[in-house]
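Hi everyone,

Forwarding the result from last night's run.
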Amino acid sequence: MIRSSYLTVFILLLSSQVLAYAPDEVQPSFLWVSNPSVSTGLDTNLGVGLLNSDFSTGAGTSVFFDATGNYAVNASLGFALNIPLAGTVSDHNDDFGLGNISLQGKYFLPMPKGILLGLVTDVVFPTATSDARIGTATRVFYRYTQNQWAIVPRGVVGIENNNLRLTGQIGAPIQMLQDNGQFDGDPVETNVSYDVGAAVALADTRDLWVTVEVGGYSTLTRNTTDQQTEIFGSLGTQYQDDEKSFGLSVAVPFTQSVRDVHSMFLYGHFAYHF
């Protein structure tokens, strides 16, 4: 199933290149804040988390990989298909499985130069296996929660000023848990998410960037058995040009419940734009 899913992304990208819109400038990428532009191409992320030795898996690492196929209709409208994977390599448990496949729609309003305003919505399908459950202890928990459908709408705002990019988003992830995935609490779980990122270009050519990001989420549902607030932060650097980008980021959880599982994360990012 995993192999056929990635083959689907590859075929869709090849068949859409002729009609795809190509933006004049590709924006720097963040781990969690949505990219405030649309483009056609493939984005991949490979992450490694350092597991707390007191966690049930024992000492070791978690591994995350996701691929996103993006298609830009025009300068304002874009769509994407995301396929996430996650697993562990540890003292007591080695797993690796598929997360929740999602479809995304992205629309940005026509705005004066230097200002970005848009709406991004993910529709998340219940494809996650138990082998990928370690991913629930990350910022994008809904990509790995088993037996759920989810809708993740969020508003995105950005400001551009020469070599500085400021981008923020606020969202409302809604999880619709199936009967066999929720033993207590509410069948529908609502959350609020919030992220802000800053990117600074190190040269006027705008090909080398440093990024800083802080984000998290809070559970709003009163009767849930897992009501919580989780906060994360990251620092990264990346190179980009009109066709490709790649970089590294270090992320840490600031709240204790995630720190009980992960002490830190290291992410590598690579993207190619047609």
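The radius of gyration is 18 Å.

Cheers,
N.
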